[in-house]
């Protein structure tokens, strides 16, 4: 797919106008005119995964609707794209936000810059996967799992099976977690704060900070486990499955599966149409195209092995175990309350 971008002619512009054009072009690359039928997508999902699917949408409309995609390659891309959408709220450039991490989608919802949509999902869709006001919908999730080095822990009965074992002294400096300031780890502990309460969650995080090896991201955690630098770690299924498929001696464990335990957290991709989007009709058509079992199957078959939400999905991803998984019951909107203050508290705690 050759993603379209905006080209602005600069001939005969004043110096001040050229400054404006330079700023605008920092958002764009290439030079393809934008038609009224184009839909602009900001995608936190990696371009390798999202672009072929967006190209399939263009083909499905017989090129009557084009797609202009903005992808961010930074490690904190979700934060960056969300902040850009906030900055553009008074004059949106984006029509549809495809986020691969839900918490900042909820942040945009609470700021009132998303538009409700009639999501074409069945009544059986999990309640925690649809916004209470219809402004976003979740699909194709990743799960928060434990990755264990089986050479270091050959006895299956001795392996961890709970997230809070990151704070257990028996695993001191032999387990790992990503710094909970961005991405799915930040979402995970925001969810636990809603379930356990603020003080208990902070106590757990303080214990983890003292006990576990804290790394920059989930990929680094998975790699530390596969390399034998630590015996196990908390990471995402998309990072864990890579190490397994590369042939390292690792096993993926879905944590907290006993009846008295909270279950495994899954974090979906989300779609959201921007309030006052330039092309809301085209955005709605693209949203409906993406929110289907067929697209979930494509994401399940890809390298990230994402977990379909639809019961009509026909392709079980390689990362999913053969036995049923108990999923954590989540209220993402409650978990996002007071986000800025909570994020500052965690930044102070994990500053070193």
From TrEMBL:
<protein>
    <submittedName>
        <fullName>Iron (III) transport system (Iron (III)-binding protein)</fullName>
    </submittedName>
</protein>
<dbReference type="Pfam" id="PF13343">
    <property type="entry name" value="SBP_bac_6"/>
</dbReference>
<dbReference type="InterPro" id="IPR026045">
    <property type="entry name" value="Ferric-bd"/>
</dbReference>
<keyword id="KW-0732">Signal</keyword>
């Amino acid at each position: 797919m050759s993603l379209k971008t905006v080209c602005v002619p600069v001939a005969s512009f004043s110096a001040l106008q050229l400054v404006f054009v330079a700023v605008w072009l920092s958002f764009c690359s290439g030079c393809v005119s934008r038609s009224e039928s184009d839909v602009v997508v900001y995608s936190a999902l990696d371009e390798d995964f999202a672009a072929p699917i967006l190209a399939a949408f263009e083909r499905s409309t017989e090129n009557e609707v084009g797609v202009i995609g903005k992808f961010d390659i930074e490690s904190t891309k979700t934060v960056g794209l969300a902040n850009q959408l906030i900055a553009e709220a008074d004059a949106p450039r984006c029509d549809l936000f495809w986020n691969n991490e839900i918490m900042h989608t909820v942040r945009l919802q609470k700021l009132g810059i998303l538009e409700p949509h009639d999501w074409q999902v069945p009544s059986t869709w999990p309640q925690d996967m649809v916004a209470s006001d219809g402004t976003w919908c979740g699909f194709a999730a990743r799960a928060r799992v434990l990755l264990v080095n089986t050479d270091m822990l050959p006895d299956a009965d001795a392996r961890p099976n709970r997230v809070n074992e990151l704070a257990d002294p028996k695993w001191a400096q032999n387990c790992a977690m990503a710094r909970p300031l961005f991405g799915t780890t930040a979402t995970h502990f925001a969810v636990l704060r809603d379930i356990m309460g603020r003080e208990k969650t902070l106590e757990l995080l303080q214990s983890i900070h003292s006990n576990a090896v804290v790394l920059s991201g989930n990929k680094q955690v998975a790699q530390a486990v596969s390399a034998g630098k630590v015996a196990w770690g908390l990471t995402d299924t998309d990072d864990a499955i890579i190490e397994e498929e590369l042939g390292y001696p690792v096993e993926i464990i879905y944590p907290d599966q006993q009846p008295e335990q909270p279950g495994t957290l899954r974090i979906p991709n989300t779609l959201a149409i921007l309030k006052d989007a330039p092309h809301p009709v085209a955005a709605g058509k693209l949203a409906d195209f993406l929110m289907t079992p067929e697209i979930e199957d494509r994401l399940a078959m890809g390298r990230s092995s994402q977990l379909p939400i639809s019961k009509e999905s026909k392709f079980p991803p390689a990362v999913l175990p053969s036995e049923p998984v108990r999923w954590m019951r989540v209220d993402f909107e409650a978990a996002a309350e007071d986000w800025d203050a909570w994020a500052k508290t965690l930044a102070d705690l994990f500053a070193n």
